[in-house]
Structures are given as structure tokens and as C-alpha cells.
Design goal:
Largest sheet of chain C: 2 strands, antiparallel
Distance between the termini of chain A: 76 Å
Shape of chain A: globular
Structural class of chain A: alpha+beta
Distance between the termini of chain C: 39 Å
CATH topology of the largest domain in chain C: MetI-like fold
CATH class of the largest domain in chain A: Alpha Beta
Number of helices of chain A: 17
Strand order of the largest sheet of chain C: 1-2
Strand order of the largest sheet of chain A: 2-1-3-13-7
Number of strands of chain C: 2
Number of helices of chain C: 12
CATH superfamily of the largest domain in chain C: MetI-like
CATH superfamily of the largest domain in chain A: Periplasmic binding protein-like II
Chains: A alpha+beta, B mainly alpha, C mainly alpha
Radius of gyration of chain C: 24 Å
Oligomer: heterotrimer
Order of helices and strands of chain A: HEHEHEHHEEEEEHHHEEHHEHEEHHHHHH
Number of strands of chain A: 13
CATH architecture of the largest domain in chain C: Orthogonal Bundle
Helix content of chain A: 25-40%
Largest interface: B-C, 92 and 93 residues
Chain lengths: 451, 276, 290
């Protein structure tokens, strides 16, 4: 029997299941034709959106007959794996799924093939968001550059923090969805009743990109930042500016008055658990609907709703991007580059994006995010997401991101745990960041220390 | 020291039983967690409706490679165990019974001890680059070699203890009778150090089975071992505890079987080796 | 005796080859790397020589310093407690014959579990809101503690996990050693009228010393390399309160991708360990001599 290789590396397992699936495909899909592309491998890490991505890849395989292997890795170590791959003679991977915090190093190291070099006419579909132009890179100026840059990647996931709130409790107490931090504070206060219910559960633990990601919506919407203007080339360190301080003060005020008693020890996992077990009225998290609408994972099924992260009177909602991009490494043969591009072309289609959304992963297509799907209760995150994307910004556009993050993760966490006074933590972070930047050859002046 | 009073007997059994309970509790808890839904686990329910979902997802979900990870772990742990036993026994015999100058003995032992104390992660990157350059990256052989090297210092040390138990006169007598080194090893040394081989072998098997950071660096999907498979359930945003528990339960089975069968042997070998 | 020489080399060769290829060569590479800064431009690695600056930077690195300090505290405290607890348990239970097989099997269980699983289980058990430990505390009328989030408690909590993990192992080894002690000495001591405490102090402890040292060293080596458990439990936080050396190296070397600097702190760790072993060896030799 001729059947389509769903995944050639699955030889050991699920024979029955596979045979059934294959029979089904042969009988139902007239598109079950011979593969016209070389087999390819995508390296990806285990994420809440992986299951949906896997389904889309299976759909692609059954429609085209092409073989796509998914090399799924633990989140720990997947960045290192991608680095190893692009730096050796021939990369074992044909598509890299890169995280928003760290993709710049692949851009600036020259590891990715501009997609138009593989096929001159290749374009990003106008329906696909560019996420603060993060897909374009100018190799000469070493900057994100939509006007003159090369197209280096295709977005595959739109993660950014959304405010999650308990819609049922809002209705009960007659609360309105907050647009400013002050409103959020009032709502959280109205619902705060520890330990049964925390007004808000924040993610203050030190990790790779944990507490930093959690505070950025606060910092940016108070006019603060870590650098003056990364995209414009002004690397003045502003982590100890009065505006950043104001953002952090708002964060700490929520944590202390209406927050979790262990904010400094909370990871994203803890925060999600708080919401899933009905112990948090608000959390800030990426849209992963399966977490709260699956009765196996949650006791608040259908009760969580989503909104853009709040802002202030002066600044709108300012979420940081935590999205994922797919790039094609330079060090693979041409036929595999072509196969990778064929997949990325297909992935942008409306059909693929819709299937992706229906499989439980937020899509990256504006058309699908604003389609009729958004009105269905199970896709209620879509509106908040579509409203957030225009304001969402890149966190780092320098390859030194991981070194700066090591500093911010530590110092911000210390400020939250009370190990360091806030101002001292920010001043220390500023000095340390300036040193990293200066050592790497940037001009990075510091502001006068906060007193 | 051996008072036979009833009270002391009761005290002893109580202490033992309590300690055993403390040790065993997390295990029961993992096994139970494997049969729970995530929300039952988070709510800490003692009474729950058991579900096979986690085991199904670990074993049969198309994104899970658990069975292959398991097979890889069996291959890596057993092959590296055999290799490390052969290499360490030969080397220990050579060092302690074949009259090497003492600087050879001491520098080799010192180096192996120092290497043993350094976190393996320091060399993992170098190993990846080396293996990649000779086409041995993403092969089980590469991981086997790495694990053999990692466990060699411990094996050398333990086998050294046992080899030193082999009476020199016995070796000399055999040599006088015209036996060559391989024969001496087979007929004189091996029978004496057998408990040592068992203990060393089981420890290297377990350490290889559990090793995480080096495999994380060296392996890809086709060559990943069980700890990597388990590590996958710790995602970037949440941890799938129940599936992790199911995978853990399954992954402990072989070691547990080994323990049931060879428990007596392990303790005797371990203690006679380490406690001299 | 030509045969002898041949076999002498042949038997030692595999071990030497493995060590040279997989530890000495990478270590030399690491050493060279530690004087460089590596950057990637257009897919090519540019090695810039930076002299000793990676080393001087290491001494100002607050993570590395905290990591070194915590690792030593972790190893010394955890291993000491394990030894003491294991020894007390062994003293209490020597002579128990009923259920021996069962207890041995149970006490060997923890070393079979990958550290990453142990980290995950204990993280849930320590959880502030739904951990079994805080739930028990509340049930007993005590206030819940923030075991992993409180900078003053986090390292202790991590140490407790290690104690759970390895005390049974120490106990088994020490029990076996205790059982192998000659019983007639105790008879003689009792006839001489010495108290059980004196017997412990002047007979048991000195006779047990070699076993204690071996178990201690074995555990110490593993404790200094701690990585997996901390990885899932705390990730080094809060602040730097549970940062350990292998974690700092992993982060600096790989996550931050600074191979030159990572190599330098690896070499420093390596040198510190080597010196420690050298000094310990000297002391033990001098004691043997005297």
C-alpha cells in the first residue's frame, strides 16, 4: 500500500493509528500526490501553541505529499541548538523557529538566507503582520529596516501579553474592562481577597525572559524604556529614567497592595496555575486559550476574557512582542531552501492560517484574526490580540539581548523581592547594561542616578 | 550495642518505617499524578477519577517521541555501561598490578578526579563541536562516548578499590605458571571483582540514564534520551505536570525492575567497594 | 618480559585515549578560548584576543561570585546533614533484619530518578498556593511559607530536596560499614564499663572514619556539580539566592553565548577544584605520615 509519509521518523510508534490515518488520506484526499519538494526539518521548541502548529504541518503534508519533520526540543536549550546548527558546516534544520527576544543575533550574524534570494518573487502576504517590521533586516546598517532591508523571516506566532480577567466576576461586581493601570488597580482591589483570590498574579521570578517581559507593559506605558531608541541607534541607557521608575512603581504598587504574596517567586507557570485554579482575578499572559477553556486544565472554563494590557493617560497600551519568526539558514542545500520556502508560502495562506487558529493556536494573519472566527466564544482572545498588535513593539534589536536580559532579570527581581531598593536596583542595572554595551562597541551613555 | 529490649526494637522499626514513608511519598505522588488531570493535580485532590490520558499522550501522541527516547536511553545506558566497565577494569588492573611508575598512577588518578569534579556542562559545548566536525554529532555513538567518559572516573575509582583486593601473590603465581595478562584477567581477577563490576555497572547505568545537560547539548530528535523527553513537558509558558509525571513513572520502570532483581547485589557491591 | 610491556600499555591505552580525546583536548581548547572574545560576522567566527580580561571580569561578576558561594554552602550543608542523618539512622537501625530487602529497595529508589523530575515534583510540593507542604502547614495551624520565592528560604528549600534525594544513599553505605565492624570490641568495652556514648566516640567513629570519608567525598563531588534540580526548582532565583556555579557557567557560556568568558569561568572553577584536591591530598598524606 502506498501511503503518505506523515512523518518518516515515527517508525516506532502508533502503527495502527498511522495506517488508519494513511488510509483516510488516500481515500479522502485527491491532493495526496507525489512530493514535489525535498524532505525538510523544522526545529521548534515545546510551547502552548505547538499542538496547533503540528496540526498545520500535518495538513500541509497531506495536501502536498511533502515531508516535514518536526524536531521538538525542550524550551531549555533550543536556542543553543539553533546556534550550533547555523554555525556548523551544514545545518540539520531547514527552518528555525526563533523567539522575539533572541532572533536578532541570527539576523546580525548573517546566518539567515534572505527569502527573496531563494525565490526572487517571494513576498510576505499583506495579510500577515510584520510585528514592528521584525521580518526585515538591513545587513549594512545592522538595523531593522522595512524600507531597505531584506525579508529574512515569516512570523509564525503572534505572542504578546494580554490582560486576562475573570469576566464572570466582572459581571457580578459590575466592573468595566480597564484601559489604565489605575482602573486595573481599582478592579483588582475590588476582587482581592487573599488567599482565596488575588487581585492580580504577576510573574516576578528571574528567568531567561520572565520578569522583564512582565514589567515592560508597565514601563513602556509610563514612557520608560531600557534604551532611548534602539531602532534609531540611540543606545543611551534609560532603565533608571524617572519614567521607567514610574512604571516600576506602578508594578510594585499592584504587587504589594493587590498582588500575590510571592510575586518575586512566581513564574509564568505559577501565574497560569493561579488563574486556572480560580485564585487570580487578573493575570498578564500570552493568549493560549487551551489553558483555561479545557476542563482538564482549569476550573474557570469560559470565565476568562482578554483585553490589551492597560496604559496611562499619556501612553496607550504598550505590549512587548514575544512572537516567533521562521527563518531559513544559509548553510543548507538549495533544494532544502526551496522546500522550506514552499512551506512558508503555503503557511501564509488564508486556509492554513484558519486551520492553525481552529487547531488552537493564535494565527499571524490579520484577515483571520478579524474574521468571523473572532465572534465565536472560543476565539474571544482574537479581538484583544488584533487590538494589541498595532501598539506592540520589539523588546531588543541588538544581538546582546541575552546579556542585557541577564542583568534586567536579576535586578528587577531583586527590586520586587525587596532585596534591593527599587532605585538602587535600577541604577545598578543601568551601570551594568552600559558596561555590556560599551564593551560591545556601542556608545551607551548613562543618565544621572536616581536619588 | 545490640540491646534486644522490645522498646528499642519498636523504636528502630518506627524510625525505619517513617523514613521509608518520607522517601516513598514523592514516588507515590508522581505515580498518582500520572493518572490525574492537570486541574485535579493543581487542586491537590486526594480522590480523583483516574485517567489514562497522560499515558496515552506520552506513548502515542504524534508529537511525543517517548518510545524512541526510551529505546535510545536503553542503548546509551547499557552500551556506555559495558564500555566503561571494560575500560575501567583494564585500566585499574594495569595501574595497580602492572607496575607503572607512581607518577603515572597519580597523575592519571588526579586528572580523573579533577575532571570528575568539574560540572560536565563545561565540556559539552566542546564535545558538540568535536563530534560535529567528525560527523558524529546526532549519533548515539557520540552520546555513548560522552557518557563513558563522564562515568570513567567513578568507575576507575571503584574498580581500583576492588582490583587492589586481588592478592598480588595470586597474580604472580598465575604469571609464573605462564598465564598471559588476558588469562590472568579472565581466570584470576574477574571472579574476584565480580561484585565490584555489578556495583560499578549499575551506578554508571543509572547516571547515564539520568544525565540531562550533556544529552541536551549533543542530541537531536532522533537521538534524544528519556530525560530530554521528560524535559519537554516543561514548556516556555507552563509545565505539563501530569504528562511529565506519566513519563517519569514509565521512565523509572527499568531502573525499578533492576533494583527489585538485583537489590541485594547492588548494596553488597556498592558497600564492599566504597566502604573499605 | 616483552609481553608484559605490551599488555601494560594495551590495558591502560583505552582509558588514556578517552581522557586525552574527550577531556584533555577540550580542556586545552577551553583554555585557549578563555583568552578570546568570539563574534560572528557573516557566518564567520572572529576570534579577538583579549588577554586576561575575561579572568579579571570573572572576579567582578556578581552571578559567578554568588554561584561559587552558594555552591559551596549547598554542598557543605547538604552533604553534612546527609552524613549525620544517615549515620544516626544507621546507628538506630543496625541489627534490624525483618523487612531488610524492602527497606533497601525503598532507600535505593531516590537515586534512580532523574534530577529534572525531582525538581519538577518538589516545585509543585513547595508551591505557595497548592503545594502539599503549605497545605499541611495550614492544616496544622501554621502560616504558609514562600519556600522558593523568599530569598532567605530558597537555598534552604533547595538543600532540603537534596537531603531527601541522597540521605538514603548515605544511610545504606554507612549501615553496611557499621555492620561490618567487629562486635567483640564492643563486648570488651562494655565489660570495661564504658558508656554507649564512649563506645560511639572512641570505637565506632574511629573505625568508621574511612567509610565516612569515602561516602563524604563521593557525595561532595556530585553536590558540587548540582544543576538539574536547581534548573527546574528556582532557576537560580529569587535574586541570586540559589545561583550555583554550573548554572552560571551554562548561562554565561551558552545562553548569553559568551564562549570566551564562559571558558574563563570554567577554567577558574576547574583550577579551584584542582587546588582543593591537591591540598586535601597533601593534608591526608601528612596525617597518614604522622
Amino acid at each position: 500500500m502506498r501511503h503518505i509519509p506523515i512523518n518518516s521518523t515515527h517508525a516506532l510508534r502508533g502503527t495502527v493509528r498511522r495506517t488508519l490515518a494513511a488510509m483516510l488520506l488516500v481515500t479522502t484526499s485527491t491532493a495526496a500526490m507525489a512530493a514535489d519538494q525535498a524532505p525538510m526539518t523544522i526545529v521548534i521548541n515545546q510551547s502552548p501553541w505547538f499542538a496547533g502548529f503540528q496540526k498545520v504541518v500535518e495538513l500541509y503534508q497531506s495536501e502536498t505529499g511533502n515531508t516535514v519533520n518536526l524536531d521538538v526540543n525542550p524550551f531549555a536549550g533550543s536556542l543553543e541548538k539553533q546556534r550550533h546548527a547555523v554555525r556548523t558546516g551544514e545545518s540539520p534544520y531547514d527552518v528555525l523557529i526563533m523567539n522575539a527576544g533572541f532572533f536578532i543575533e541570527f539576523y546580525s550574524g548573517g546566518f539567515l538566507e534572505p527569502l527573496t534570494n531563494i525565490e526572487a518573487g517571494f513576498k510576505l502576504s499583506p495579510d500577515i503582520y510584520t510585528f514592528d517590521d521584525s521580518v526585515y533586516w538591513n545587513a549594512e546598517t545592522k538595523q531593522i529596516d522595512a524600507a531597505n532591508g531584506d525579508l529574512l523571516s515569516v512570523p509564525v506566532n503572534p505572542f504578546l501579553p494580554l490582560l486576562h480577567y475573570r469576566a464572570d466576576l466582572y459581571a457580578e461586581k459590575g466592573l468595566n474592562v480597564p484601559t489604565t493601570w489605575d482602573e486595573l488597580y481599582d478592579n483588582a482591589k475590588a476582587l482581592h481577597n487573599p488567599p482565596a483570590m488575588y487581585g492580580i498574579s504577576q510573574r516576578g521570578q528571574r528567568g531567561a525572559f520572565d520578569v522583564t517581559f512582565d514589567v515592560l507593559p508597565y514601563v513602556w506605558s509610563h514612557g520608560g524604556a531600557f534604551f532611548a531608541d534602539q531602532k534609531g541607534g540611540d543606545y543611551t541607557v534609560t532603565i533608571n529614567s524617572p519614567e521607567t521608575l514610574a512604571g516600576m512603581e506602578t508594578y510594585l504598587k499592584l504587587a504589594q497592595d493587590v498582588g500575590h504574596p510571592s510575586t518575586a517567586g512566581q513564574t509564568q507557570t505559577n501565574v497560569i496555575q493561579n488563574m486556572a485554579t480560580g485564585q487570580a482575578a487578573h493575570i498578564q499572559g500570552v493568549p493560549a486559550p487551551a489553558l483555561f477553556d479545557d476542563p482538564a486544565n482549569s476550573i474557570v472554563v469560559g470565565k476568562v476574557n482578554y483585553a490589551p494590557t492597560p496604559g496611562t493617560a499619556e501612553y496607550p497600551s504598550s505590549p512587548p512582542l514575544g512572537h516567533w519568526l521562521a527563518g531559513v539558514p544559509k548553510n543548507i542545500p538549495d533544494d532544502r531552501k526551496a522546500a522550506a520556502l514552499a512551506f512558508l508560502t503555503w503557511f501564509q495562506t488564508d486556509e492554513a492560517q484558519r486551520a492553525y487558529a481552529e487547531a488552537g493556536s493564535p494565527p499571524v494573519s490579520r484577515a483571520v484574526l478579524t474574521s468571523d472566527l473572532a465572534d465565536k466564544p472560543e476565539f474571544r482572545y482574537m479581538k484583544a490580540l488584533a487590538d494589541s498588535i498595532p501598539n506592540a513593539r520589539l523588546t531588543f534589536v541588538i544581538p546582546e539581548a541575552s546579556q542585557v536580559l541577564a542583568i534586567t532579570e536579576l535586578r528587577l527581581n531583586q527590586a520586587i523581592s525587596g532585596e534591593l531598593p527599587l532605585k538602587e536596583a535600577l541604577n545598578t542595572a543601568a551601570t551594568e547594561i552600559a558596561k555590556v554595551m560599551t564593551d560591545s562597541g556601542y556608545t551607551a551613555p548613562v543618565l544621572p542616578p536616581l536619588e | 550495642m545490640h540491646s534486644d529490649s522490645l522498646i528499642s526494637t519498636i523504636t528502630r522499626h518506627t524510625v525505619l518505617a517513617l523514613s521509608a514513608l518520607i522517601v516513598i511519598f514523592p514516588f507515590l505522588w508522581i505515580v498518582a499524578a500520572g493518572f490525574k488531570t492537570q486541574i485535579d493535580l493543581l487542586l491537590g485532590k486526594f480522590l480523583f477519577v483516574p485517567t489514562w490520558r497522560n499515558f496515552e499522550s506520552v506513548l502515542f501522541n504524534s508529537g511525543s517521541d517517548f518510545l524512541r527516547n526510551f529505546a535510545n536511553s536503553v542503548i546509551v545506558a547499557s552500551t556506555s555501561m559495558v564500555l566503561v566497565l571494560v575500560v575501567a577494569t583494564l585500566a585499574a588492573y594495569s595501574l595497580y598490578r602492572l607496575r607503572w611508575p607512581s607518577w603515572v598512577l597519580h597523575s592519571l588518578l588526579a586528572w580523573s578526579l579533577v575532571f570528575h569534579m568539574v560540572p560536565p556542562i563545561t565540556l559539552a559545548g566542546a564535545w558538540f563541536t568535536m563530534f560535529r566536525s567528525i560527523g558524529m554529532d546526532n549519533t548515539l555513538s557520540g552520546i555513548i562516548l560522552a557518557h563513558t567518559t563522564l562515568n570513567l572516573p567513578m568507575a576507575l575509582w571503584m574498580m581500583g578499590v576492588f582490583i587492589r583486593d586481588v592478592p598480588t601473590e595470586l597474580v604472580d603465581a598465575a604469571s609464573m605458571d605462564g598465564a598471559r595478562t588476558p588469562q590472568v584477567l579472565r581466570h584470576v581477577v574477574l571472579p574476584i571483582v565480580r561484585p565490584g563490576l555489578a556495583a560499578t555497572g549499575i551506578l554508571s547505568f543509572i547516571f547515564s540514564w539520568n544525565e540531562f545537560p550533556v544529552v541536551l547539548t549533543l542530541a537531536q530528535r532522533q537521538t534524544a534520551t528519556v530525560p530530554i523527553g521528560i524535559g519537554k513537558y516543561a514548556q516556555d509558558n507552563t509545565v505539563a505536570f501530569t504528562e511529565m509525571a506519566a513519563a517519569s513513572t514509565l521512565s523509572m520502570l527499568p531502573a525499578f525492575l533492576l533494583l527489585l532483581i538485583a537489590q541485594r547485589f547492588i548494596v553488597r557491591g556498592l558497600t564492599s567497594g566504597a566502604v573499605k | 618480559m616483552k609481553n608484559d610491556t605490551f599488555w601494560r600499555y594495551t590495558t591502560l591505552m583505552p582509558a588514556v585515549l578517552l581522557f586525552v580525546a574527550l577531556t584533555v583536548v577540550p580542556m586545552v581548547n577551553l583554555f585557549v578560548l578563555s583568552f578570546h572574545h568570539v563574534e560572528w560576522i557573516e557566518r564567520i567566527a572572529i576570534w579577538k584576543s583579549v588577554g586576561w580580561s575575561n579572568y579579571t571580569a570573572a572576579f567582578e561578576d556578581n552571578l559567578f561570585r554568588a554561584g561559587a558561594f552558594n555552591t559551596v554552602v549547598f554542598a557543605v550543608v547538604a552533604v553534612t546533614v546527609q552524613m549525620v542523618l544517615g549515620f544516626i539512622l544507621a546507628l538506630l537501625t543496625i541489627g534490624v533484619t525483618r523487612g531488610r530487602t524492602f527497606y533497601r529497595t525503598v532507600f535505593l529508589l531516590p537515586i534512580l530518578v532523574p534530577g529534572i523530575i525531582i525538581g519538577a515534583i518538589w516545585k509543585l510540593m513547595y508551591s505557595y498556593d497548592f503545594g502539599v507542604i503549605n497545605k499541611t502547614a495550614i492544616f496544622l495551624g501554621m502560616s504558609p511559607q514562600d519556600w522558593l520565592g523568599n530569598p532567605n528560604l530558597a537555598l534552604a528549600s533547595v538543600i532540603v530536596v537534596d537531603i531527601w534525594h541522597w540521605t538514603p544513599f548515605c544511610f545504606l553505605l554507612l549501615l553496611a560499614a557499621l555492620e561490618s565492624l567487629p562486635q567483640d570490641i564492643y563486648e570488651a568495652a562494655r565489660i570495661d564499663g564504658s558508656s554507649p556514648w564512649q563506645a560511639l566516640r572512641f570505637i565506632t567513629l574511629p573505625l568508621m572514619l574511612p567509610a565516612i570519608i569515602v561516602t563524604f567525598v563521593f557525595r561532595m563531588i556530585l553536590a558540587l556539580k548540582v544543576f538539574d534540580e536547581v534548573y527546574l526548582l528556582t532557576g537560580g532565583g529569587p535574586g541570586t539566592s540559589t545561583e550555583v556555579v554550573s548554572f552560571t557557567i551554562y548561562r554565561r557560556f551558552f545562553t548569553e553565548d559568551r564562549p570566551g568568558y564562559g571558558a574563563a569561568i570554567s577554567i577558574i572553577t576547574f583550577a579551584a577544584v584542582a587546588i582543593l584536591i591537591f591540598v586535601a591530598g597533601r593534608i591526608s598524606r601528612r596525617r597518614k605520615a604522622s
